[in-house]
From TrEMBL:
Region (Disordered): 106-128
Statement: the UniProt record of this protein carries the keyword Transcription regulation: yes
Lineage, uppermost ranks: Archaea, Methanobacteriati, Methanobacteriota, Stenosarchaea group, Methanomicrobia
Residue ranges the record marks as coiled coil: 135-165
Coiled coil as UniProt keyword: yes
Domain of life assignment: Archaea
Entries under SUPFAM superfamilies matching the protein: Winged helix' DNA-binding domain (SSF46785)
Extent of Basic and acidic residues compositional bias: 115-128
Descriptive protein name: ArsR family transcriptional regulator
Amino acid sequence: MDSTGLLDVLGNENRRRILKLLSERPCYVSELSGRLKVAPKAILQHLEALESAGIVSSFEGHQRRKYFQISENVLIEIFLSPYTFRIEAYLESPPPPQLAALIQRTPMAASPSSTEDKPSSTEDKERYNSSRIALSGLVRRIEQLKNAQRELSRAKQSLQIQLVNAIDAAMEHIETLSPDPLSAEIMAYLLREPKTSAQLLEALDISPEALEGALRRLKSMGLITEKGGKWRLI
């Protein structure tokens, strides 16, 4: 599904609430219904929409209950400014969550003879200590990655502000250099990205003759050039 379709699916508040709960652990319909205070039929409809989008998948757990889980790593970025509107989505199918494997197992009763939580044999103790050390290292690694993610988000915000400021400054120079309003409008379009003559005609809604004259004038002034079939600012 494309980025616009994902936004449409995620635009519903109850679907976002469902995903919030599923990000904690897999759930079944009546469980989601009870926690969200939404009718089971409505919950099922939302889950079907999320499943059709490929965001959610289901599996059968113990007692033959149907559980739902998030099945995609999705990153959606929206770039919105006076000069830009762009949506980018990145999807990656992760391996099955470990929680799903735990839920699929039938709960086992605790052994009545078990009196200690920690392993007793030397081999079990070594395995226990090794796993505990590995877990501690992964907890620190997860915290480092979360911090890096927050820093990256702040860096993107800073870059967006710098980009808008640079475009603002460029627009002032375009107004100074342009011989007429049409030329200024053409240069403003080319500032966003290079365009073909056909794309400029569609965007500006002018005659081909008017566009050709304006492009020829801007080229003679050394303000634009044509490369690979597209016009761009010099």
